[in-house]
Amino acid sequence: MSKPNLKYDHVFAIVRVDNYQTSAGAPQDSITITKVLFSESAARREVERLIRLNREKGPAYFYQLTRLERRDAGVSDS
After folding, report:
1. Most CB within 10 Å of its CB: which of 1, 8, 12, 49?
2. CA–CA separation, 32 vs 15, rounded Å?
3. Distances (CA, A) of 47 to 1, 26, 37, 38, 55
4. What are phi and psi for residue 49, nearest 5 degrees?
5. Helix-strand-coil percent breakdown of the chain, rounded to 5?
6. Domain-by-domain residue ranges, the chain?
7. What is the pLDDT of residue 36?
8. Phi, psi of 16 (to 5 degrees)
9. What is the pLDDT of residues 18-65, one digit of tens each?
C-alpha cells in the first residue's frame, strides 16, 4: 500500500453488490458503500461479518482501498 499524501488519507470502503439487481437496471443500482473505515484489518473483519450475516440473502461484500480528501481549515464548502 502506498503512503498517504498531504491532501488525502487512505481509507477502506466496504462495498456491497446486490447480485439480484444486476440484471434489473443500471449497474450502479446494485452497488452500495456501506461504510468507510481507516483500518484495513477492521475492514476485513467487517466484510467477514457481513458475509456471515447476509449469506442467505446473496449480496457480495468486499473492501476497497480509496482516498479521503482532508478538509483544509481555510477552505469553505460554499
Report:
1. 12
2. 6
3. 19, 24, 11, 14, 11
4. -65, -45
5. 30, 35, 35
6. 8-69
7. 98
8. -115, 135
9. 876 556 677 777 899 999 999 999 999 999 999 999 988 889 999 999
